[in-house]
Amino acid sequence: MFRAIFQKIKQGLAKTRSLFGSVAELFGIRGRVDQQFLTELEKRLYLADVGTFATQEIVTRVRQAFLDKEINGDVKQFVKDQLRSLLTDASPGLRYQPSGPTVVMIAGVNGSGKTTSIAKLIKLCKDEGKKVMVAACDTFRAAATEQLTIWSQRLDCEIVKGQHGSDPAAIAHDACEKAKARGFDVLIVDTAGRLHTQTHLMRELDKIRRILTKQIPGAPHEVLLVLDATSGQNAIAQAENFKKTVECTGIVLAKLDGTAKGGAIFGVKQKLGLPVKYVGVGEKPEDLEPFDPEAYVEALFE
Ligand SMILES: Nc1nc2c(ncn2[C@@H]2O[C@H](COP(=O)(O)OP(=O)(O)OP(=O)(O)O)[C@@H](O)[C@H]2O)c(=O)[nH]1
Ligand SMILES: [Mg+2]
After folding, report:
1. pLDDT digits (tens, 9 = 90+) for 184-206
2. 113 lines ligand 1 (CB under 6 A)
């Protein structure tokens, strides 16, 4: 199991790994952990988009532990351990409710990968034997409902939808009724992409949320913020703003395969304080992996 996840993550991290190669290489250079080594370590971590805070943190810890000691394998292992400690506490997967539908709401900026991540979540839940329904609450973008409909047909999943431009909260209401009446285990709610500055759209998101809460106790049980990994540190800045208006329970980091900026994930815990639940490593439904800090760090240095 670990091996399979590991291989997938490793492939997904191909571009990021090419940058981390330069960090790994540093440990192979003979010598001492001196100021020059620390400066070089700092530079390389920074170039791998680990971010200012996390980079400083690691360099400080290495300085305290190893300054003026010979370089051996321990330094590499130490850095790996530190990187892992900066990642979110493992909180992979969805927290399924013991009874009634588990409601998962998806949010994020335009084009971050929300709808594709939903297709992946459908597959994941179905593979776990769950009865899954999706609600097409993006009525804003013209082709959004169609896109989700195609996925739902391909994945053989029930969909509740409405007219283009109709009230997404009404669709959410309808979906809750159907999910309860027909014994669905999971209801995933797609929403339109938006910026935290678009007040009316943020209010709309809040309205969808309130409807879900009213219809199903404790819903939404998960609110996943989908971030586009290709925007690196910028994605984190966006998420910080988003989080101020939407209460989120976790992150889906999409498009990790398309970027060398995978190091940005080290800033997520410190800046957002949210667990990364899944990483997207491709465009196909099977390209979603529960986030495993151990596998992630190992894959970076492989
Ligand atoms: N390589 C790669 N591409 C991805 C991944 N996730 C999504 N994409 C692509 O990113 C693009 C946008 O994905 P969508 O799922 O439509 O994004 P969205 O957030 O729903 O977009 P809006 O609804 O317009 O806000 C599509 O071309 C997807 O195929 C991923 O993990 N890897
Ligand atoms: Mg979408």
Report:
1. 999 999 999 988 888 888 999 99
2. yes
The answer to whether 156 touches 183, Cβ cutoff 8 Å, is no
Point out the least confidently predicted range of 105-109, 196-200, 216-220: 196-200
The predicted structure's pLDDT at residue 49: 85
> What kind and span of H or E run contains 203?
helix 199-215
pLDDT per residue as tens digits for the range 53-98:
889 999 999 999 999 888 888 899 999 999 998 887 766 689 999 9
Structural contact between residues 193 and 112, judged by C-beta atoms closer than 8 angstroms: yes
Name the CATH superfamily for 102-291: P-loop containing nucleotide triphosphate hydrolases (3.40.50.300)
Alpha-carbon distance values, 215 to 140, 151, 169 (Å): 23, 26, 11
Q: Going by C-beta distance under 8 Å and a sequence separation of 6 or more, which residues neighbour residue 124?
A: 288
For ligand 1, whether the C-beta of 257 sits within 6 Å is yes
Is the beta carbon of 107 within 6 A of some atom in ligand 1? no
Which pLDDT belongs to residue 195? 87
| Domain extents in the chain | 2-86, 102-291
Could you tell me if 150 and 98 are in contact, meaning their C-beta atoms sit under 8 angstroms apart?
A: no
19 Cα to the center of ligand 2, angstroms: 30
d(CA 50, CA 233): 8
- CATH topology for the 2-86 domain: Four Helix Bundle (Hemerythrin (Met), subunit A) (1.20.120)
Q: Is the pLDDT of residue 236 over 90?
A: no
The SS3 call for residue 89 is coil
